[in-house]
Write a structure and sequence with these properties.
six-stranded parallel sheet, four-stranded parallel sheet, alpha/beta
């Protein structure tokens, strides 16, 4: 049985490789036609997709899956409509493939041009969130890449339904349906084989928990673009507008707690907290958020659990927040750089010097001033969608849209030059 699965794994990779070579020379119009067809097919197949998702939801509930993960897993009519709308938006964006990034002439007469080209075959490894199936497939198709999807067992039926929808749509176009492949065998040993398909998959992009990402990094022999878990923070500076600060913290924590750009710790200047801390805590508790309070304020809030070292490093993905009190901006920066995951961080402040220092010193892909971290998202950035949020510093960083799924090629024009 394992041998059959391995052969299937490799055959799908070979098919994706062949499709990627065809895709790389397709016109923007042909790729956009494919995206339009997928958006239409999502509406047509809506009931099929929702029924498949109900099967996954039912199994997840039997396994006592947490509410935050159930939320990530769930698809309904509104979410499918939003996914289809995002595909249509993506189709309207400029195709980056073939763009000239730079060009120059050398003293010997050679003309050098640097252009964007597809990467080839993208291996996507992700948990729960079936919307990633569509986002990843459509971003890859738009950029002339084939994609080999490896979702989690928790969303298998939904992912199978979504990939079937994509393939039905592609059959109506010039884009081969083999450009989108799904690894249906979700066993860990098969995943480890998937991570080592050198020569067939060009890059792996893991998206999910810190555990998943670290597993891919450790097991893979293929290059990995590391996306990160989101232990994100809002720092309330001593000059922060109290109404604004409370509104931003509530949004960043409660608008959708189960996602990676929701905050897990609010860091507060002690001077600000002395004046407005009670109202901030009351607002969080009223919103149903459990507050783990800094030990220095435990006497003032004896009814709240005291934060421990583990709290500073925890990505709750739930209505839980740690409250850290600091004396200085530098202490806040040091805390973020120690416990943050280089994802998204925000400062609420009316002091330009403090904002400038925060922006310069905090090591993260995305920094905000007087705004919620919930905007770290490809669609919110105008990218149409995202394939992940990179927290590394090579190739791509932050929300990864179309440009992040390209490589480069140098084109050199000569008139007979030889090197002496």
């Amino acid at each position: 049985m394992a041998l059959v699965k391995k052969n299937e794994l490799i055959e799908k990779a070979k098919s994706a490789r062949t499709a990627s070579q065809f895709l790389s020379v397709q016109s923007s119009a042909e790729k956009d036609q494919a995206l339009h067809a997928i958006a239409v097919q999502l509406h047509t197949d809506r009931n099929i997709i929702i029924e498949a998702n109900r099967l996954d939801q039912g199994r997840a509930k039997q396994n006592q899956t947490t509410p935050s993960l159930l939320d990530r897993l769930m698809l309904n009519e509104a979410r499918i409509d939003a996914i289809a709308a995002a595909v249509e938006t993506l189709a309207k964006l400029p195709d980056p493939i073939g763009d000239t990034l730079d060009q120059w002439d050398r003293p010997n007469g050679l003309h050098i041009q640097k252009i964007r080209v597809p990467i080839g075959v993208i291996g996507m490894v992700y948990e729960a969130r079936p919307n990633v199936t569509i986002d990843a497939a459509c971003l890859c198709l738009k950029t002339g890449n084939a994609v080999y999807l490896r979702g989690s067992a928790s969303a298998l039926e939904t992912n199978k339904a979504l990939v079937s929808t994509i393939k039905r749509a592609l059959r109506q176009t010039n884009i081969p349906e083999e450009a989108v492949q799904l690894l249906e065998d979700t066993r860990h040993e098969t995943a480890n084989q998937f991570f080592r398909l050198n020569g067939m998959i060009d890059v792996l992009i893991p998206r999910g928990s810190s555990r998943l990402i670290q597993t891919v990094i450790k097991q893979a022999s293929i290059p990995v673009i590391e996306t990160g878990a989101g232990n994100c923070h809002v720092y309330i500076d001593e000059s922060a507008n109290p109404e604004m600060a409370t509104r931003i913290v509530l949004n960043a924590k409660t608008q959708r707690p189960s996602v990676c750009n929701a905050i897990e710790t609010v860091i507060v200047s002690k001077k600000w907290f002395d004046q407005f801390g009670d109202s901030l805590i009351d607002a969080l508790l009223t919103a149903g958020v459990s507050c783990h309070i800094d030990p220095s304020a435990a006497d003032k809030f004896p009814q709240l659990p005291t934060a421990s070292e583990d709290d500073w490093a925890t990505e709750y993905l739930d209505k839980i927040i740690a409250v850290k009190l600091v004396d200085t901006l530098q202490e806040a920066i040091d805390h973020i750089n120690r416990y943050g995951t280089k994802h998204s961080e925000s400062i609420i402040s009316e002091d330009p010097a403090h904002v400038a220092a925060f922006f310069k010193a905090v090591d993260a892909s995305t920094l905000y001033h007087n705004a919620s971290t919930r905007f770290t998202d490809g669609e919110q950035f105008g990218f149409g969608a995202e394939i992940g949020i990179s927290t590394q510093k090579l190739h791509a960083r932050g929300p990864m849209g179309l440009n992040a799924l390209t490589s480069i090629k140098y084109l050199i024009e000569g008139n007979g030059q030889i090197r002496e």
